[in-house]
Amino acid sequence: CHCLHVRTQSLPSGHVDRSSHSFFANMPGISLGETFPDFEAESSIGPLKIHEYFGEGWGLLCSHPADYTPVCTTELGYLAKIIPELTKRNMKVLGLSCNDVDSHHGWIKDIQAANALEGAFPYPIIADPKRDLAVKLGMLDPVEKDAAGIPLTARAVFIVGPDKKLKLSILYPATTGRNFDEILRVIDSLQLTAYKKVATPANWKQGGNCMVIPSVKPEEHATLFPKGVTVQDVPSGKGYLRFTPQPDLN
Q1: Element (H or E) spanning 200, and its range?
Q2: Is 3 among the catalytic positions?
Q3: Which residue of the set 102, 132, 163, 181 is catalytic?
Q4: What average pLDDT score do residues 182-188 get?
Q5: Cα 210 → chain centroid
Q6: Per DSSP, which regions of 68-192 are E strands?
Q7: Out of 15-24, 142-151, 239-248, which region has the weakest mean confidence (pLDDT)?
Q8: Which of 62, 67, 72, 188 is catalytic?
Q9: Higher pLDDT, 95 or 152
Q10: H or E stretch covering 240
Q11: Would residue 141 show up in a list of annotated catalytic residues for this protein?
Q12: Which residues make Cβ contacts (< 8 Å) with residue 119, sequence separation at least 6?
């Protein structure tokens, strides 16, 4: 997510010249496999340090353009409802929005009312009013801007492993709400493939057949995959489409 410097004088319709806005001048972003920044931030539950908050398990950080916005209110509400599913997966959750803590506290009441949530809100929301973290993590939307003309934070999803390295990132524009059922699906895939020598095919869901990764030799099948391996025939004759029932993680 490095800065794109446009050198032409005239830009095509719909093209965004990032170099014209100071927020994009130093927006490095973070790549898969890199250690996720251990930043300290104010949040709706007080100051926190992200590595400490995530602990020894997995972490999920979801950013939002702004408080008191319609799509964000539906997202944060749905995310609150699936906290039990995320807890089963040893996930800790953080939200982030580009407003201060006082604003977050007021917005949380709206989120709870709009989504019929009762009790304490189940996860903290980080305050990033100056967009410091948004810039550091490379998650600004160059098209959508607030009333002051400042780029909004895009709808970023970051999944961090127990080793504190980035395992997955998805960046949605500010106008498109996230599919959290898909996020649960990719968490299941990430956790399975982190410990077993398999990959998950298109549209895979928990319990579905997996694919043996290319580095596994045929002579290892019996040891690694006691449930068996099926090789699909293809015109090339290359036996690379190897399927196996989902391995047990226990």
Answers
A1: none
A2: no
A3: 163
A4: 97
A5: 22
A6: 91-97, 125-127, 140-145, 151-153, 155-160, 166-172
A7: 15-24
A8: 72
A9: 95
A10: none
A11: no
A12: none
